[in-house]
């Protein structure tokens, strides 16, 4: 169940949990000391044009949706002598976008509903490279709202409705505003090659723990 307000009918939603997203940036910072602060990931990623063939699958505690394999473990695939830390930074950011696409693909298959655009929130939405790549790999617009902490905002809205501070859901919808939109700009063949290689890298994580 997504939510239920008062005596109104419940609203249901599909949920897809991804194991590691922003925590992978923190891991690069704290465990490998490749960056000093999380925001440095974008600067480092901008030193290269692409991922250099590198794919980082952060199955540190297994794979979540849509695989649900608790015996998987993380891999960095596609390493060559050409690869540098800028490529690793790119692969770290792209890992989130690839995982989101896998969840979106699964949701579309289950529901029969095609995604029109992806609304984003949270700390990672300030990263321009990630947001553009997310739009590219989904081939859908990615939208960032003015208020980027949607979970906290939703809780505040629910409380406001409960005490009569807000009139109804229509008033809440009127409060929403778009901050930025990223449109896909990647060629289809490139997109599918990236995604195909990602899927190949994911299979390398399977059944690592016996």
Describe the protein in words.
The chain has helices spanning 22-30, 40-45, 85-111, 128-138, 150-162, 169-175, 188-203; strands at residues 55-57, 75-77, 118-119, 142-145, 178-182. The protein is globular, with a radius of gyration of 19 Å. 26% of the residues are buried. It contains seven helices and five strands. The protein is mainly alpha-helical and 210 residues long.
Assess the beta-strand content as a share of residues.
Answer: 5-15%
Mean pLDDT: 95
Q: Characterize the biggest β-sheet.
A: 3 strands, mixed
How would you sum up the global shape?
A: globular
Kindly provide the radius of gyration, computed on alpha-carbon positions and rounded to a whole number of angstroms. Answer: 19 Å
Total DSSP helices:
7
The share of residues in helices is: 40-55%
Helix vs. strand class = mainly alpha
